[in-house]
Amino acid sequence: MLATHITNPTEAQVDEYIHNAVPTLDLTVHHDDLFNGAATVMTALFPEWNTSDISFLQFKDGITNKLICCTHNPTGTQVLVRAYGKKSEVIIDRKQEIMNMVILSELGLCPPLFGKFRNGLAYGCIPGKVFKVADMRDPHMMELVAKKVAIWHSTVTIPGERSSKLFKTIHKWIHEVPEAYTKPDVQEIFAKNFDMKQIYSELAMLEDHLLRLNSPVVFCHNDLLYGNLIYDEVKDDAFFIDYEYGSYSFRAFDIANHFNEMCGFECEYENYPSRPVQLKWLRTYLETAASQTEEESKAMVTDEDVEQLYREVNKFALASHFYWGVWALVQAQLSDIDFDYMPYAVLRFNEYFKRRDEFFAL
């Protein structure tokens, strides 16, 4: 294991560690031939498997990558093959993603990474049921997720610089937004709804406001939407999948982003959790986080602690809208996934402007 106390490993150290930890295949899985590509990956990683014994199923909910579930029928073993979305490297640091998966697997927080190929990964499945949007608002499920988020934030240490990448990432993405989109219908929506000078100005104001909060920096998942949450009925526990956006960030951002995702891809913001629901979730989170250290206890979580985190989280909900709004503006030009990125960007920024003054005033 790459020592987690090495806070600034060199690129060579990271490359060597990944090279030794993860088998590398000189293969490409093409988006127009996913099953054959996945079969080639499986037989390369598991030479004892017969292609005729493997069944393939494509999951179509994702909006960044192509995902195939490969089931070895004689043993029941399931492996996921993920082919990266077109030009998704502009959005995602793939080396960071692999490091995340290797370390999280060693900590027992994610399944093993079996191998990587030119444009993707092959990794294990977490048993259980994928959440639906409504599950995110179920009281018992909310408690399980709050506890697991607290465990992540309290215990996960990934090699690298331990400063938030949130605004660095947004600044990187915003420079990838094109002056004009190649698809006329996309360009029409963009021109009607966005003034990039205003967006840049808003980003500067938002960053200044949120940095003053001094929200603790922890390792965050950064994408806790329903499709990345798994309920294991046997263990009565929640688990997280898909770690490609994982990085050090502000704890309040990770929580706020999860709250925003309770509204689903349709952005039904009437489902944003109410203050009483949030306070209960946040207390569970803080009590679980406190229990992870010997010197703290549940008794040390005060009402003011919960209120302070409530203020932080709702302010960072604005950053979540901005983050995914800019992400969608970039994806609208680059991605070949069947998803309406530009209308999604409009919905996220509309909610940002609708709630900005209210949340700034908290």
TrEMBL record:
The keyword Protein biosynthesis does not apply. One of its GO terms (molecular function) is ethanolamine kinase activity. It is an enzyme of class 2 (transferase). Keywords: Kinase, Transferase. One of its GO terms (cellular component) is cytoplasm. Belongs to the choline/ethanolamine kinase family. This is ethanolamine kinase. The lineage of its organism: Eukaryota, Fungi, Fungi incertae sedis, Mucoromycota, Mortierellomycotina.
